[in-house]
Design a protein that fits this description.
The chain is α+β, with helices and mostly antiparallel strands. It folds into 2 domains: 1-30; 41-239, Glutaredoxin. It is 43% helix and 11% strand.
């Protein structure tokens, strides 16, 4: 009986040791969310030099500018597009997004998708087509580009198709790719919030918090420089919505 009891005790202790080891491994290798006020990124002082390569969505004079290096076939870019939508809903008219094309070579439909939004932009439908392509990302390359354009409100799909056949309209894509390579971008989305370059993309709640801090004249992260804060004249009480 004693031998049986000792064997059972040894088994229990062994299982406990395995469990503790598993917890320690999880603590060691599980990703950690950055704490509020932590420094998950760095400031790029010349970030405004990127703006000529961008397509603006929203008022370019807004106090908050989010520069986005984006790939329309990238699932993480689609997720970040939703984060921006949440921030816009919380702070309407306070955010401009500067969309820079950076289609990755490994995404077979990314360049054509970028070309499609450029063509839609000639009809004033750049932003809506970006949203439509992200919403229909699983179907890129499986439906005609003109069908996505029509869904975004482009009425003259024949003219759109002619634009898609013209390679010269992809010049803005080449500019974005060249800029991204010049500043060392290797993946998407790469995000700059008033010059603050994130490591990865912020979540919905993190982006809303950071935008709120900026609009309140607060540094959203430790080390965020004063030059990245919006001008006081752009931070009227009516512009800041509590969250």
């Amino acid at each position: 009986m004693n031998a049986l009891w000792e064997k059972g005790l040894s088994l229990v202790l062994g299982l406990a040791a395995v469990s503790i080891a598993g917890v320690e491994l999880h603590r060691e290798f599980a990703p950690r969310a950055p704490e509020r006020g932590a420094n998950p990124a760095r400031y790029q002082s010349d970030w405004r030099n990127m703006l000529p390569a961008a397509r603006f969505i929203g008022d370019r004079d807004a106090p908050i500018t989010i520069v986005e290096f984006m790939d329309l076939q990238c699932p993480f870019c689609r997720r970040f597009n939703s984060a921006v939508a949440a921030a816009r809903a919380t702070y309407p008219n306070q955010i401009a997004t500067a969309f820079v094309h950076f289609p990755l070579a490994g995404h077979g439909q990314a360049h054509a998708a970028a070309h499609a939004v450029e063509c839609a932009g000639t009809f004033g439908k750049f932003a809506t087509t970006v949203d439509v392509l992200f919403e229909n990302q699983p179907f890129l390359g499986k439906r005609p580009w003109s069908a996505f354009a029509a869904g975004a409100g482009v009425a003259d799909t024949a003219a759109f198709a002619k634009c898609m056949a013209d390679s010269t309209t992809s010049g803005n894509i080449d500019v974005g790719l060249a800029l991204g390579k010049k500043i060392g971008i290797t993946g998407t989305p790469t995000i700059f919030l008033n010059g603050w370059r994130y490591v990865g993309a912020p979540s919905d709640t993190e982006l809303v918090r950071a935008v709120g801090d900026l609009l309140a004249g607060k540094r959203p992260y430790k080390g965020f420089p004063k030059e990245g804060l919006p001008l006081a004249s752009a931070r009227s009480p009516s512009a800041v919505k509590s969250h």
